[in-house]
Specification:
- The chain is α+β, with helices and mostly antiparallel strands and about 170 residues long.
- It has two domains: about 1-55 and about 120-165, no CATH class; about 60-105, no CATH class.
- It is built from three helices and seven strands; from the N terminus they run H-H-E-E-E-E-E-E-E-H.
- It has helices at about 1-10, 25-35, 145-165; strands spanning about 40-45, 50-55, 60-70, 85-90, 95-105, 110-125, 130-140.
- Strands 1, 2, 6 and 7 form a four-stranded antiparallel sheet that branches. Strands 3-5-4 form a three-stranded antiparallel sheet, with no helix packed on it.
- Mean pLDDT is about 80; it is low at about 70-90.
Amino acid sequence: MFVTELVKHSLSATASYRLLTDPVPSSGKIAESVKANGFDSILVTHRLPIERITNVTPAYTSLEPDYVMNENRFMHNEYWPGHYHRSYGYNQYWPNYYTYYSEVEHKGTVEIQKYHCKSINVWTTGTNGRVIWSATSKSLEPETSSADSMEKSRRDVINLVIPDLVRRSIIPAK
């Protein structure tokens, strides 16, 4: 995907898997390939460990209004144990209002969010090869993992990286 975007910027780009057959090539093999192909820089992406963030909401109990009644009108006709009431009123000439409360249990939740992280570096390949640009991406794992969601995640990263490389004059504009 990076190759396609770099080519759009008039650069000659080749995916490493086309040149290096080892699943995890050594630094020496990479250096040989870079030299043999005359590359002046390389863009390296490296998968970092998945970050897991756990959000815990503890269970709790609250008192919530259940019903209200006054001297003339009952919204419920009886009081049952486990309910609490608070009474408002002044005296017999003013209506007395009662609010009854019920204990309501709210269940706790545990939510785990997974973030896929990648390191992205651009290196020069001359005698003093060094990193000239570096970034880390962190993408929230979609709830339903599919090829489309992974593709969208890659596209989102590329849409951030390439414009930044252009803005910093590391690659030419289209």
